[in-house]
Amino acid sequence: MKKSRILAMTLVAAMALGGCKAGAQAVSDSTAAQKEAPKTEETKTEATEGKKEETGKKYKIGFANASISNSWRVKMRDMLVEECEKLGVELIETDAHDDANTQNSNIEAMLQQDLDAILITPCVEDAVNPGIEAAFESGIPVIIFDRTCTTADYTHFVGYSDKQNGAECARMLAEALTERYGEPKGNIIALDTMAGSSTDNFQKEGQESVFSQYPNIKIIARQYTDFEVSKGKSFMEDCLAKFGEGEIDGFISQDGAVTLGAVDAIYEAGRENEGIIFTNADGINGVVKMVKEGTCAGITQFPCAASVDALHVAIDCIEGNSPGVKDIMMDSIVVTKDNVDEYLIPDGDDYDWTY
Fold it and tell me: Which of 25, 31, 146, 233 is 20 to 30 Å from 326 by CA-CA measure?
């Protein structure tokens, strides 16, 4: 379900790259003589256009996906596929199953397919740099989205700030604890995502930027959950066994499905009446329902539609309309009881993504 939002572009890099390189690479002709002959730009264009005519597609764009290991990534990928079909784009996609070596190999293989551009969501921040750099060196637009990388060899990054989302969640939790106790204090649990991912690194950096201001808000336990509901639930069960009634004031989570698992653990332990406060950096419908009910202090959205935003930037680059900034950052979407109805799907499944 798409919602209107305000997109704010900020200049993160000091200087944008000087435009995107459009067009496809050379393909071999069928005759041996032409294979031996050097390819001219005219030959490249004719070969590429011929393939496009055969498929009936306007552009061929690669998508090196980190994985479809959680419901957010499935929805993100589905929205991208739908938009490609709508726009007449041939999408060549791969799934790295969250393995950096696999993703590098996938990128290298896709670069042999005369792509007009490539979209990449890196598994981790640094280990996919070789594949990203190889794509950039090939001369096609390289659009990074969802997760960041540590190389500068890409054309554009498109996304929302995990650091800002983490900070907003920490702020909402601090405000809720202050409202309860008259001052910012309490023992909280942190449900992290995947070690080494930019999502986790920046979310924690954002959280710390807020919690460092409040020494009486203490993180008494934290754990990587790898975006898995079962791990979030299991860790919360362990925490509930370790800390007695009244010893857990709240928790902060980076993933909506993990949050649902943690809340299940609280209810199954019969401790829902303790008023454990929580915030969450994901727009999953079950957590949005809890914002509506008042059991969740608030959430930030990390829209699945980031893939669609990235696709449009890639097409702009191909068509010579490259954005004027290298890193295109969207403002965080903060959902509280005041605007929750804009994002809630009342009759939807708890695991539906609301944007």
Answer: 25
Within 10 A of 113 (CB to CB), how many other CB atoms are there?
A: 15
Q: What is the pTM of this model?
A: 0.66
DSSP state of 43: H
Summarize pLDDT for 14-28 with one digit per residue, the tens.
333 333 333 333 323
Contact 128, 120 (CB under 8 A): yes
Taking CB atoms within 8 Å and a gap of at least 24, the contacts of 344-350 are: 344/285, 344/288, 344/289, 344/291, 344/292, 345/1, 345/285, 345/288, 348/285, 349/285, 349/286, 350/260, 350/284, 350/285, 350/286, 350/289
Bridge partner residues of 301 (DSSP): 333
| Residue-level pLDDT at 198 | 81
CATH superfamily label, 162-302+337-342: Response regulator (3.40.50.2300)
Q: Residue ranges of the domains in the chain?
A: 32-160+304-331, 162-302+337-342
The Cα–Cα gap between 210 and 268 comes to: 31
Find where tokens 């032409």 sit: 34
Strands 298-301 and 142-145: unpaired
CA distance 267 to 27: 60
Range with lowest mean pLDDT among 52-66, 173-187, 268-282: 52-66
Beta-strand pair 333-335/142-145: unpaired
pLDDT at 54: 52
CATH superfamily assigned to domain 32-160+304-331:
Response regulator (3.40.50.2300)
Identical fold for domains 32-160+304-331 and 162-302+337-342, yes or no, is yes
Backbone dihedral angles phi then psi of residue 217, each to the nearest 5 degrees: -95, 115
The total of other beta-carbon atoms located within 10 Å of residue 92's CB is 16
